[in-house]
Amino acid sequence: MFLFYQMDSNRSLSSPFHFKIFMDLSFISQLALESANKGTSTGREWFGAERALESHSPVNGQFIGSVSITTEEQYHQVIATAQKAALSWRNVPAPRRGDIVRQYGDILRANKDALGKLVSYEMGKSLQEGWGEVQEMIDICDFAVGLSRQLYGLTMHSERPGHRMYEQWHPLGIVGIISAFNFPVAVWSWNSMLALVCGNVCVWKPSEKVPLSAIACQKLFQEVLEKNNIPEGVISLINGDYKIGELMTHDPRVALVSATGSVRMGKIVGAAVASRLGKVLLELGGNNAIIVTPSADLKIVMTAAVFGAVGTAGQRCTTTRRLIVHESIYDKVKEMLVKAYGQLKIGNPLDGSNHVGPLIDRDAVEQYSFALEKVVEEGGQFIVPGGILSGEAYNSGCYVKPCIAEVQNHYAIVQHETFAPVLYLMKYNTLSEAIALQNNVPQGLSSAIITNELKDSEQFLSANGSDCGIANVNIGTSGAEIGGAFGGEKETGGGRESGSDSWKAYMRRQTNTINYSDTVPLAQGIKFDL
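^ thats the sequence. predicted structure below, dont judge the formating
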């Protein structure tokens, strides 16, 4: 906890906010951030510009700092430097590349507290979630270190005598990473740590809503680069709005673009990269559901559903959007949800006693309000009403009430992903019906079933079950571990990041045939005599 309080003499003791809250923001200077920061870096070198992004905290609306916007000239300089670095970095043995990532993981451990606080303050997620996000970075560093000795290919038997076949994996070159505001640092690390051990160099374009978190990550990496005399261009940073991202998506020098964000953004990025036949990795929206069966442990349901719906104020791509409950227990679950939501504390996310923090900005609040209006227009009914919070504790204008609405799955607003704490409640009769409801949305990221029936869980996990990239049993939709491949199907984009064999997206496969005989027999028995 890093809050302290001062009595406000203008308020009575009976007032709910009779203390003024002051925050210890020393973590900003601990991370070497300034009020005005250069926003373009090739590693150890930094470049400024006249135009800048301003970062304001959704916690209290206060200005945190500015970050200069990368110019087109600076962008091309970054890419040229990265191209040069790629030629040398790919020749560094993979275990040595892994050791560089290990050192970065150690620096993250030493700075977990400060960086977690920055993530929480700049993005608005709870302090526990801020620290948890940095822990994800540490975990993926550990994973990547082991991976650096396990970039395995395969050997195959040739149909021709005196021949050997195998496949191997080579670096792509430059990997461009476009990340979203809701995970300011973790998703970049999922991509970059794997890409680095695979022999690529990385150029990161973070969300313009959370640029300071990216500056902090780059400065921490700078310590490793300086200590090991790593060439400029191995790990680079650019900043700006969608226009700087467009430079990267249309640039044939960037072999792979990994983009995390909305479906709308993903379609634009995918089309741009496809137009030059480049590689793309998309991790886009989700419309995640939990199916609650008659045999479900309702304590598990409450924890999974409530945290899944309100964690990060409903701004995770894996946030629980829909709760599909069997009709025999529907009323009981509804009653328990209303009671649980009545216990939620909304406020400063840096205060550990609060469950829910703010939305990222007032644009997000407008989208939340629009969703509430549409629910009513389409015939839905709120059992836990929503609304925008006001008052001294909510002076940023970004705090809203988590809400629950009884709806039909076919409502247009239910089919759409609203990045806010809005939970849709619906009932079902048969498991096949529940699975059909769950799958009948454009997105396919995460899903879950809460059940104590083996047959139900197995049906859910079968080819006839969930069509999502993530399908869980007796846990919620939110909070994936780094060891598994993360991503989804349909409008979620089809990409996979983080664990399992996701590393293959950052490399090119090469098939090799070696003839160690004295003749040249052709495949398929073809005869060609001279």
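The chain has a mean pLDDT of 95.
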